[in-house]
Amino acid sequence: MSDTIRFTLDGRDVEAAPGQTIWEVAHGQGLVIPHLCHRPEPGYRPDGNCRACMVEVDGERNLVASCIRQPTDGMVVSTDTQRAATARKLVIEMLAADQPERAEAHDRSSHFWEMADAVGVAESRFPTMEADRIPLLDDSHVAMRVNLDACIQCNLCVRACREVQVNDVIGMAGRGHEAFPVFDQDDPMGASTCVACGECVQACPTGALMPASVVNDDQVGDRADIDREVQSVCPFCGVGCQVSVKIKDDRVKYIEGINGPANEGRLCVKGRFGFDYIHNAQRLTVPLVRREDAPAKGLNVDPANPWTHFREATWDEALDLAARGLVDLRSFYGGKSVAGFGSAKCTNEEAYLFQKLIRQGFKHNNVDHCTRLCHASSVAALMENVGSGAVTASFNEIENADIAIVIGANPTENHPVAATYFKQFAKRGGKLVVMDPRGQRGLQRHAWKELRFRPGTDVALLNAIMNVIVEEKLYDRQYIEGFTEGFFEFRDHIRAFTPERMAELCGIDPGTIREVARAYADARAGMIFWGMGVSQHIHGTDNARCLISLALLCGHVGRPGTGLHPLRGQNNVQGASDAGLIPQVMPDYQSVTDGEVRDLFRHIWRGTEIDAQPGLTVVEIMDRVYRGEIKGMYVLGENPAMSDPDVEHARKALAHLDHLVVQDIFLTETAMFADVILPASALPEKTGTTTNTNRQVQMIRRAVPTPGSAREDWAILVDLARRIGLDWDYSHPRDVFAEMKMSMFSLHHITWSRLEAEGAVTYPCKSPDEPGEAVVFGDGFPRRAGRAKFTPARVTPPAEVPDDTFPMILTTGRQLEHWHTGSMTRRAPVLDAVEPEATAGMHPATLRELGVAPGGRVRLTTRRGSLEVMARADRNVARDMVFLPFAFVEAAANILTNPALDPFGKIPEFKYSAVRVEAAESDAVAAE
Ligand SMILES: Nc1nc2c(c(=O)[nH]1)N[C@H]1C(S)=C(S)[C@@H](COP(=O)(O)OP(=O)(O)OC[C@H]3O[C@@H](n4cnc5c(=O)[nH]c(N)nc54)[C@H](O)[C@@H]3O)O[C@H]1N2
Ligand SMILES: Nc1nc2c(c(=O)[nH]1)N[C@H]1C(S)=C(S)[C@@H](COP(=O)(O)OP(=O)(O)OC[C@H]3O[C@@H](n4cnc5c(=O)[nH]c(N)nc54)[C@H](O)[C@@H]3O)O[C@H]1N2
Ligand SMILES: [Mo]
Prior knowledge:
With 928 residues, the chain is of the alpha/beta class. Among the domains are: 288-374 and 572-726 and 733-762, Rossmann fold (3-Layer(aba) Sandwich); 387-566, Dimethylsulfoxide Reductase, domain 2 (3-Layer(aba) Sandwich); 808-919, Beta Barrel (Barwin-like endoglucanases). The strands form 11 sheets. Strands 14-13-27-26-25-15-16 form a 7-stranded mixed β-sheet, with helices on both faces. It has a 6-stranded mixed β-sheet with strand order 33-35-34-39-32-36. The longest helix is centred in the middle third of the chain and has 19 residues, at 315-333. The radius of gyration is 29 Å and the shape is globular. The N and C termini lie far apart (79 Å). GO terms for molecular function: 4 iron, 4 sulfur cluster binding; formate dehydrogenase (NAD+) activity; metal ion binding; molybdopterin cofactor binding; NADH dehydrogenase activity. InterPro entries: 2Fe-2S_ferredoxin-like_sf, 2Fe-2S_ferredoxin-type, 4Fe4S_Fe-S-bd, 4Fe4S_Fe_S_CS, Asp_de-COase-like_dom_sf, CT_Formate-Dh_H, Formate_Dh-H_N, Formate_DH_asu. Its EC number is 1.2.1.2.
């Protein structure tokens, strides 16, 4: 390359790429130059403040900070002169004078002490300058400890908080030697707006900021005091952050982010501090079978004391009973009397085995998983119009975009690491448009436009935007001609949806609609991100169709910085779907109705006939269970007794089952109805692969053993399959992966050994030595003639609208610290300490009208049921709405939700029900 810079480093001729610093080049050559305020990890800007990395440049009087200085052509740089070495050592020695003694250090193996070792500083000749200024221990946060006596003012925590995670909580107060980091307005960390991503803890070079789990009561600790470290992937969301698990005595001591393709070292509170669910005392450690004398099935088991309803069994007995119950139903009523829910929390191999077990063992396709409650409608629209259900571009592509729309997704809470990229995008001038009926605390101040429209009116808003683009001819005509079909019909259809008419429905003024439409159409590159606010409606598929049409109109697909990205939820929902855990399709979305597909699987599965009839979906299966048509179920890693809509109905259905086998890591609400409970492995306890929202297939490496006699999910599946008569002979997840490759073209060029070596490969991947494609469909779509399609969408009201009896709107969703049904996060002490209680968010004005103070209790009632919950004042919630998270069994949101389904995606309308809100009686009495 012509702009390569050539210079001399310690007498050798070397090259630098434009923008590279002397430190980076030296580091690349294997030279060790000490650094304290510099962090070579991606995302950290060099600051050049600590002077620990000084080098000499010919012709310059002063030494220069190599971390920040970029070489120029012909420059002669020496790192190894006496003068430079002495200067560097002096810096460290002076700083050492103010550090706590190494024996008492908060982190004996801190980066600082490593650097001191590297330059040969064991103690300091200088007097300590330690002033009274330093605030001592701040232990106000459950997960982190702040000991500023070790702070060297390097500013890394500030950069971590402001520039990498863009949370803007930490700042520097005071000047010079007196400076120290503060949280917000010098609040205790635990009382500040800190979201506990822990980036500062990971960046701090001295141990001034430490994970609480690494220091003792005297604030002494040692990061290196571990037995081993295993690189794997976070078990929570679809971002798929790579982690390093630090293990001592077979327990996780702490977690750090590593440089995975999606997270580049970053983590959120769950990934960093939520790992401890796996060590919870309520983990299932032995197989359980229902006692003969157990009370009737219901939500009546104490997970801490299951012995009232269950007894311990050996694995042989439990597996025999589990299999026999299913086989008996099969032989008496036929295979269709048994159905299965698989898991998006397990690996690809486990998902594959699960769908195979149902399809091969029971000869039908009634197998589904939580994707049905999630992005089913998005996938339906994407398959229909784009020809593929996965994202067209990784979320990290936002760095190449000019505009990005985030609609019906709350990424700072639900995909927090992806959100850091969104915030960085906005900070460098990208136009961020947030469309959500609820105000978004996290993205609000980064948004160029925040459109708080009426819930359930996405089609109206999006059609109005597209109307402007069509009427003003802002569309990309060349793109439409080259890569799409159906434009003319679409153009005629969209004419009716003028901003003026749609404004009445969605509540956004026509001027704003026009401005957003023009900005998106005029941008060089635009991306669209969406979530459950789009998909969980009876018109979820229509909502997603609009987003697809919008991107197609403007040609914002297939190039860097463009794309359609439904943010996938569970850590492996992309992979479980790819692996065929879906009732209509086999692995890689190959339709069960296609004879050639069935032939292929007959061949791979040694003569198994695949049922040509598409299977039933989650809510449909529950309905058949309720009606008694399905009599047995195998539920792996799902908690439908909490996560299904109209959950009382689902619970009754579960209680009706003749035979229920639940395989989980905790005694969940669903397991309370089980006949046999099989104790399984958490993600950090298993080997396999998962696929994240970016289509990155990643290696899961077993970090710690399973507790008690719990076993890895894949191994349990194999044993159970054999007992129901299948000739399975897998002896390692690797064998399963090899079989998956036989039918899954998406895994082309992705091999187990590659994943072991590289950690992640993105599909599609063109060759064995490429990382895979971040952006797809630049040269056409996997549809007829390579063209994507415009499918017009009409405005449909929600299935249930407010009336006199149920005058408000209930919407449900998530919060940062909790995971879905709470099974994991309510058993993770740090997370549960931050969010211990169920709350319903309402506007302060609404609470005043109801006569309820924040913290008081309200009763929520819908056509399905009624519950009491604590009220939380939240200005982000519209006045006629209530927001309720669904993680709390004592106020289970799904008692209230509407099971009405989208006709295409078969997804229920979790985001909209008519509700009545009253001051709770108990509260009214207390107030009197
Ligand atoms: N902390 C945490 N993170 C998670 C999860 C978790 O349980 N906890 N779950 C994971 C999973 S499986 C998923 S699917 C994702 C979900 O992640 P998100 O899609 O972000 O999930 P939600 O919070 O359910 O809803 C998103 C937004 O939809 C908005 N909304 C409500 N009604 C409407 C509407 O009519 N139109 C529009 N446009 N928006 C509306 C809500 O106000 C909310 O801000 O999160 C994943 N990440
Ligand atoms: N009201 C309302 N309801 C909703 C939604 C909403 O927004 N509002 N969102 C819907 C969405 S998007 C989703 S994805 C679903 C999620 O619904 P579910 O998938 O039912 O919810 P989770 O709590 O994630 O259940 C996962 C289960 O797997 C177990 N588990 C975790 N790891 C492992 C493992 O490695 N092996 C095994 N065997 N088990 C494991 C956990 O203990 C837990 O019981 O909820 C849906 N329900
Ligand atoms: Mo989800």
